[in-house]
Amino acid sequence: MADHTQATSAGVTTTTRSRPWLSGAIPVLLLLLSLVTLPPECSAFCPSKCQCLGGEANSRALCVDAALEDVPIQLNPETKYINLTVNRIRNLEFSLPFYMKLEILDLSQNIIETLGSKNFEYQSELRTLNLSRNLVSSLHKHAFKGLTNLLLLDLSFNRIETVHPTALSDLASLVELDLTNNNIVSLEDNSFKGMSTLEVLVFRNNRLLDVPASNLWHLHALKSLDMSLNLVEFVRNDSFEGLKELLALSLQGNVMSELDLSAFEGLISLKHLDLADNNLTMVPTQQLSKLSNLTYLNLGGNRFSQLPAVAFLNLFHLRELHLSRLDYLQRIDSR
Ligand SMILES: *[C@@H]1O[C@H](CO)[C@@H](O)[C@H](O)[C@H]1NC(C)=O
Ligand SMILES: *[C@@H]1O[C@H](CO)[C@@H](O)[C@H](O)[C@H]1NC(C)=O
Ligand SMILES: *[C@@H]1O[C@H](CO)[C@@H](O)[C@H](O)[C@H]1NC(C)=O
Ligand SMILES: *[C@@H]1O[C@H](CO)[C@@H](O)[C@H](O)[C@H]1NC(C)=O
Ligand SMILES: *[C@@H]1O[C@H](CO)[C@@H](O)[C@H](O)[C@H]1NC(C)=O
């Protein structure tokens, strides 16, 4: 194409064939026509508040803090990266099917209330999806349908209360799931079924009343589980059974007053355990004694009145033991 016309009245900059005999309102019409008739290499547009970078092979769009209310649909359909953080986007309907090559999508800090159903159906290449700091309150049955290659999903700082039991089941490649700061009280059985590649699960600051044991059972590859700042009072026998790869577990900041004797059964790889800021009145000696590979243990901020002589039986690899803020401590048996 030899000549260039700026069609800025439509809020976009584009390339069209120049028609000197046309003027006035015609450029808008021309723009619409060109959408239909231009060959593929000319069909990409960059909204005025976005920055579009890279060539065909590595097309990227940055639309950060651009006051957008919708996902722009006129970007290069080959785009692999779209950053829409800090906008006013409310819903995702009918916009994403245009971008089938998308690998990274940042939708954090918008006002999305629902992810709807099947809105990611064509994003089989997507690796990273950031939905942090939106207003999502539930995850519907087909919310993530199509995201079979997604590795990282950030849903932190939303208002999620309900998760449909099959909402996450399409995420067969997921490695990291962040649910920090939501309102989840419990999960239905089999909610994590099929997530056999998940390595990092963050449930920090929700309202879980129990360890979701029957769900964790499916996460055979899990390496790190953060359930800090929830409302767990009691950990039942075998709650973490099946998590043979788990290296780090945090239950910090719950309201646990007791642990069943086999609460930590099966955590054969565990190295890092944080039980700080709970309501434990006795050192859980027997429960800990099976964690023979533990190197870090935090029991600070509990309500122990005494530390018996053999409180830490069998913990031969322990390198760091935190016992600060034991406000109820009266006696240490140092035999
Ligand atoms: C999107 O842009 C923001 C602001 O520049 C940046 O902090 C963030 O890392 C970007 N997101 C991704 C996924 O690259
Ligand atoms: C997602 O976006 C939020 C806010 O923009 C940011 O703090 C967070 O680090 C991002 N998550 C990931 C996994 O990059
Ligand atoms: C938990 O397991 C221990 C054996 O390790 C058993 O003595 C105890 O009764 C079990 N607790 C419950 C509630 O089943
Ligand atoms: C401790 O870790 C080693 C490898 O570092 C492993 O072979 C062993 O099985 C672990 N111990 C237990 C009790 O599983
Ligand atoms: C846990 O301890 C706090 C004070 O630290 C107390 O207010 C609360 O009632 C206790 N909760 C349970 C379930 O024991």
From TrEMBL:
It holds the Pfam family LRR_8. The chain crosses the membrane at residues 21-40. It comes from the Eukaryota. Coiled coil: none annotated. Gene3D superfamilies: Ribonuclease Inhibitor (3.80.10.10). InterPro entries: Leu-rich_rpt, Leu-rich_rpt_typical-subtyp, LRFN, LRR_dom_sf. Keywords: Leucine-rich repeat, Membrane, Repeat, Signal, Transmembrane, Transmembrane helix. PANTHER family: INSULIN-LIKE GROWTH FACTOR-BINDING PROTEIN COMPLEX ACID LABILE SUBUNIT ISOFORM X1, SYNAPTIC ADHESION-LIKE MOLECULE SALM. This is Uncharacterized protein.
